[in-house]
Amino acid sequence: MTVRIDGAALTIADVVRVARPDTAGAFAKAVLDEGARGRIAATRAFIDANWMNDDAPLMYAFNTGVGLFKDQRVLMAEMAAYQRKTVYAHATGIGEPFGEDVTRAMMLLRANAFAANYSGPSVAVVDRLIDFLNAGLHPVIPQKGSVGASGDLAPLAHLAGAICGFAEAEMVWRGRRMPARDAIAAAGFDPDFTMGAKDASALINGSTASLALAVLATHDARRLLKHADVAVCLSLEAMRGERAAFDPRLQRARPHPGQMRVARNILRILDGTARCSQAARDVRFPDEVGRAEGAPASPRVQDVYSLRCAPQVHGPAVEAVEYVERIVGTEVNSATDNPLIVDDGAGGYVSLSGGHFHGQYMAQACDLLAIAIADLSAISERRLARLIDPTLSYGIPRNLLAGKRGLNTGFATVQCSMSALVMENRHLAAPGSVDSIPGKGNAEDHVSNSTWCGRKARTVVENAEQVVAGEMLMAAQALTLVEPLVAQFPLGTGTRAAHGAIRAAIAPALDGDRWYATEMVEALELVRSGRVVAAVEAAVGGLE
Fold this sequence. Notes:
This protein has 21 helices and nine strands. By secondary structure, it is mostly helical. It folds into two domains: about 1-205, Fumarase/aspartase (N-terminal domain) (Fumarase C, Chain B, domain 1, Orthogonal Bundle), CATH 1.10.275; about 215-340 and about 350-540, Fumarase/aspartase (Central domain) (Fumarase C, Chain A, domain 2, Up-down Bundle), CATH 1.20.200. The strands form four sheets. A three-stranded antiparallel beta sheet has the order 4-6-7. Helix 9 (about 210-240) packs antiparallel against helix 14, helix 9 crosses helix 19 and helix 11 crosses helix 14 (about 310-330). The longest helix is centred in the last third of the chain and has 37 residues, at about 450-485. The protein is elongated, with a radius of gyration of 27 Å. About 55% of the residues are buried. The model has no long low-confidence stretch (mean pLDDT about 95).
């Protein structure tokens, strides 16, 4: 697959196709649109013909220093050295490197920003980014050290130093971390690369690390939403819950689009269920207390909030993701460095200083995403916690255990791990976008903190994926344990398909404890692969 970049039409899905391998292990290739190539070349030709002299007006970061040195001219004789020194000055990243998918997304997004033809780099810079991306040359980029204005300077400086073959930079190629120059040479490219005027500032100035994190987190959050709806249905069927809370007549009384969409999904998945009925509730489960054998169950009337209020909690997450997708989608096709080179309306160009590098859009969008998905994980954990307690699950065997009690413990430990992730998410959901420490001698007197917001949003989504996977795993175990007692009350069409897809990958625990971490990973892979939702949609039609 090929993804063509022109600075205007790149999508979140396109970025993911390039950043992550498909099921066969192949990455989509990036190709620079020929029209975009021509426009970049024309802009650069104007720059070379008109501004590459010491009489040109002062243009920030083009022929001036940066920050508080903005009024200091850089001479043409110093230009090559200035490009290198600019990268060296900003390569101050800290900590473990970004994962491969983030690095690849950064490279693609930076090239796409250049394709918009506002940044003024040489075509060779754009080609080198794309060629290295397609060759699997991945710069080692520390995660920490950016305040998200003037863009992600530190991460992008490490990227720039790597693609330009700086001796201090590192790359990963074919799974090996090595000096960038060695990796570049091994891949068949010339390690030496000379940047021209504006190339360095174009490479390092922009909120591209924040954007890469936001793109991947948003994509994964979108995928998680349907899984959360499937998970609540599995839990609802296991606990033989009520469906009245999802009735469209009730939903119309508070017609938030996300809430109504979730309620429709739940009813579609549960269609045909006999398990969510009073007759099924009258069957006494093994660990139910307070009811004699053969006595009918008390009317349920209404369920607890974690079941009944799923539309009111999942729904805001749906709408938050939609908002974040709009913000991120705009940013994907934006030029975010400074200054920008714009058409002067008279056949030439002019350099304009602005603030597009400021990452506040990314920071606030990622904070919202973290808040919404953290709450999605919290309500999921409350449902799975009920499944291990027979006083809350209406008699499902304690700890979902099939085996000798005492000798075995059951799934209570899985619930404990899920609660740890939820507690982590609650802290990570605290907004980072409201924090700002001025930097660089107060030249940057308000910053966005967008890179941290992106990093924590991505972690929140990853944690939530595991929690929802844990709910699906545990609800499937519950359904398997009680199936012999209530086989005459079939599950809903969608729930049955989901349970079947889980069981096709993970056998039930029927002989006591086992290495639960293995099936937790397997359940997470089911979420990330989309196989459970695909099975449900094959059975009931597309979920919203």
